Amino acid sequence: MTPPPEVTLVDQPRVACDGASGIAAALGHPRQYIQIDDAIGYGECGYCDRRFVLRGGVADRDGAAAHGPLGGQGAPDHA
Ligand SMILES: [Zn+2]
Fold this sequence. Notes:
Elements: E1 7-10, E2 14-17, E3 32-35, E4 42-44, E5 51-54, H1 58-61
Parallel strand pairs: 1-5
Antiparallel strand pairs: 2-3, 4-5
The structure holds zinc ion.
Residues 17, 19, 29, 32, 45, 47-48, 50 line the site of zinc ion.
């Protein structure tokens, strides 16, 4: 049973993932730097499959983040 990829909204296109950002320290891995591609708006960690979505980027707008724990707070309200 594989859980869906964890989605994390970030404010900068360059992030570091060590797999242990407060949720499951036992699943940590060597720190991995991820450069988010502007064209797709997200980057994925090769170790833990965590997905980093650039806030306000393409992937954020088309609802990729809505599949994660951060979604489900009602309709987007970008007037
Ligand atoms: Zn990771």
